Amino acid sequence: MPVPVLLTGRSVRLEPLAMRHAEALARAGGADRSAYAFTPVPDGLESALEYIARALTDQAVGRSLPFALISTADERVVGSTRFLELDYWRGPLIWPPAPGTPHGDPLTSVPDAAEIGNTWIARDARGTGINTEAKYLMLRHAFETWGVRRVTMRADARNTRSRIAIERLGASCEGVRRAHSRGLDGAVRDTAFYSILDEEWPTVRDIVQLRMSSPRQMRVPQDLLPA
């Protein structure tokens, strides 16, 4: 499966998630939990250890590639994100379609499609550009290093903050799947699905780079967003 990778930007560094991040992750998740109604976020050290253990189990079987988000300004852990739903389309054709597995050496295989998700940011790091740059680093790695055909993102349809953030990246909404799954609150939720295709990446890259150049003042005109 894809090997863990370090992604570094100006405001954020994405380190492969490890048990050594547990205490800092617990601090970041416990500062203000009012915005975590739709996203699993560790609450306390024991919860953080369990959170990381589950993430590393998923990584070991090729389901995900999790990261700790580190603010480069003060070297603090400020959240987490991950690649997940890794899919492989090379090798023998399987019908009906099913989630693919690497063809050939799994240690050198790269996915053809991936999802970015399970993202949360500590309250004091929101609005700093960290989330935008983290998404940019992951998208750039997916499209320019792995060469994926599609990156997917999704959100609980009720999560307006998350949906706006995804749309401002330039991702296209594929629609809302009704009664898709149980939400974090136990209610049956609708899920909004978004995607970026490889041929759209150059336009999206320019949009995100423009936003990062002045994250607080710059708003991208709607006519620049992919249809």
Quick structural summary:
This protein has 227 residues and is of the alpha+beta class. The protein is 29% helix and 28% strand. It has helices at residues 22-30, 45-60, 130-146, 160-169, 201-213, and strands spanning 7-8, 12-16, 64-71, 76-87, 113-121, 150-156, 172-182, 188-197.
Explain the overall architecture.
With 227 residues, the chain is of the alpha+beta class. It has helices spanning 22-30, 45-60, 130-146, 160-169, 201-213; strands at residues 7-8, 12-16, 64-71, 76-87, 113-121, 150-156, 172-182, 188-197. Strands 1-2-3-4-5-6-8-7 form an eight-stranded mixed β-sheet, sandwiched between helices. β5, α3 (130-146) and β6 (150-156) form a beta-alpha-beta unit. α1 (22-30) packs across α2 (45-60) and α3 runs antiparallel to α5 (201-213). The radius of gyration is 17 Å and the shape is globular. The model is unreliable at 217-227 (pLDDT under 50).
